[in-house]
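User: Okay, second chain of the day. Same drill as before: sequence in, structure tokens out.
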Amino acid sequence: MALTVTLVSAEEEVWSGEASLVVAKTVEGEIGFMTGHEPVLAILAEGQVRITQADGAKVIANAHSGFLSMEGDELTIVAGHATLTS
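Assistant: Same drill. Structure tokens below.
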């Protein structure tokens, strides 16, 4: 089973798909998400969002000014600004 991940900025949807692991920076520190993670609502800090897709491919985005929400196996990251770096 995989996480369903959506990363959006104020301008556009930056990335969406399935992932086995997502690591993001919050104002409390870095947090990693895998399937079965408890529900979380956190404030996003400026930094990288690192997504490992189900096939092992990596996606990296720079993001800041927003929040993330984990509910069930769905992770939504809403950033004021986000861009893919790879």
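The two ends are 24 Å apart (CA to CA).

User: Thanks, on to the next one.
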